Predict the structure of Response regulator.
Amino acid sequence: MDLPFETGESGGEEGGTLASTVLVVDDEPVVLDICARLLERESDLVVLVAESAEEALPLLREQRIDVLVTDKNLPGMGGVELVAQARGLQPSLEALMITAYASSESVIAAFAAGASDYILKPFDDLRVLRAKVRAALERRTAGSRVREQAREVAREASALLSAGQDAPEPAHEALEVELRAYEESSRAVQQGTVGVVGSADALSALTEAGFEVLELAPYAPELERVDVVVVETGDPQWRTLAERLQSRPPDVLLLASPQADLGDLLEAITLRMDLVGFGSSQGASVLPEKVRMLLLRRGVQRALDRLAAALTAFRQSIRARSA
């Protein structure tokens, strides 16, 4: 059974059974075109575009939006105000801010309005946008407490700054350092370790693509310490392994071998597994890119957690100075 295809990753509130909707707002047509073309490649995403906040608001009132991606500087209503209004209309919506330069003040304002991440333009690597939208969908589905706490911290810090209080210069510098580190992490598209179970072809393809790869047995303890696990349906223990790793840290990627039957595929869907066909040259080329995206997404999430911690430290320094 040859499966030279790639299924979409799960997103949205129904565990991937429904398409997720992304609204991109930017007054530059070329940016809208690039974002739309890139995201529309994802089979489970519906992409809407608007050239202004005023054009976006009716869409936000009329239909469910899972992720809002908006430029910070828009004609008329700005991106920060749009995020605030969007979150008022749809509290579970995730928002990403596009900005040409991220300063501590602009990031605090964006987070305070309800954004949970930002993207620098021009886009050096378009995969970053896809990875950040995917990470946002996961946060929306999971209802991440860490991200909501970061927004609360930013709101309080913004209120303190507006009231005339400020953090000492070292705190500003520390936050700026963390912002630069976060931006650098978004460019590190291939950091992390991949464990491969039951597929010599996958091991070879990933090694040739430059990944750090370990060939592991189905019950190797290292499986819980790698970033991504790749397992093929040809391995007789793939179901047991997938179930065991579902609640563990690694992302699990399932390869559909040429001998995979319909039962394998249905079970993979039931387990909400990320599935990649691997019985042709096309499937072999898809695998490295899929793993690269998973590693990038994980790196973005870890860096965003560190940025949230830096925002908390910044807020605490304002409190300490005003005490």
About this structure: Residues 20-177 form a domain with the Rossmann fold fold (CATH 3.40.50.2300).
